[in-house]
Design brief:
By secondary structure, the protein is an alpha+beta fold. It has 5 helices and 13 strands.
Length: 238
């Protein structure tokens, strides 16, 4: 597998949809995650990220224009002890509640499927970061229709027990900007993680996303030794 540039991957795809990046900084000191949302419809574009405790939630930028909140209003990021959950839907709560009852990441998602939004049947993508005693590992999941067939759900979990310095993984909902939108294919992309401070990395990701379609971006750097974190949120709607 070829290690890819996050910047190039984003610049070459005008509509990856929603995406999760998780990895470790080049100096090995920081666990990094980023989550972005994009939109083609007015309803999807009418959103912002706002802080919610240790996590974030989506919110309508203009409540008067909100049409259907069911798949666009949710908490993408929640923190459960030393675990940070990042997803593209309300399965964040499913994972949080399941793991709080001692289920695994994978077991918690067994009751969920892809989104009920024909003809796209958008995949549910999820990530979990675990930092403990100076160790950092993570996992990613994608729940998708069987090659566009909504009668079956294909479930994939990818675990990275020890995050390697300077490396990460990137998963997003759509492979290409087509109609209907084809689901992401294969395992999460192997990407080069930055030797950059949080503001520089945030700017790199944000400016690489398609100007017309990008909506919001969340970035968090977590100190692997102390667990302390820094967060950045960027919203196109202001």
């Amino acid at each position: 597998m070829e290690k890819l540039s996050i910047k190039t991957e984003l610049q070459q795809n005008p509509y990856p949809g929603r995406g999760i990046i998780i990895g470790r900084s080049k100096d090995g000191k920081k666990a990094i995650t980023a989550y972005f949302i994009m939109g083609r419809s007015e309803n999807s574009r009418n959103r912002i990220f706002v802080e919610d405790g240790e996590g974030i939630r989506t919110q309508a930028f203009d409540p008067a224009k909100l049409e259907d909140p069911s798949l666009i209003i949710y908490a993408p990021v929640r923190v459960l002890g030393n675990k940070t959950i990042v997803t593209n839907g309300d399965q964040t709560d499913t994972i949080y509640e399941g793991m709080d009852k001692q289920l695994t990441f994978e077991q918690s998602l067994r009751i969920r499927e892809f989104e009920p939004d024909p003809p796209n049947f958008t995949p549910r993508i999820s990530g979990i970061m675990h930092i403990e005693n100076g160790n950092f590992g993570y996992a990613m999941s994608i729940l998708k229709s069987a090659n566009g067939n909504p009668e079956a759900c294909n479930r994939y979990t990818f675990a990275y027990d020890k995050a390697v310095a300077g490396e990460g993984r990137f998963i997003h909902t759509y492979a290409r900007n087509e109609n209907p939108l084809p689901s992401f294919e294969g395992e999460p992309k192997w990407v080069d993680m930055p030797d950059e401070d949080i503001d520089t990395f945030t700017n790199t990701v944000w400016t690489s996303l398609n100007e017309d379609n990008k909506v919001s971006l969340f970035v968090r750097y977590i100190d692997i030794e102390t667990g302390k974190y820094e967060t950045r949120i960027v919203n196109k709607n202001k």
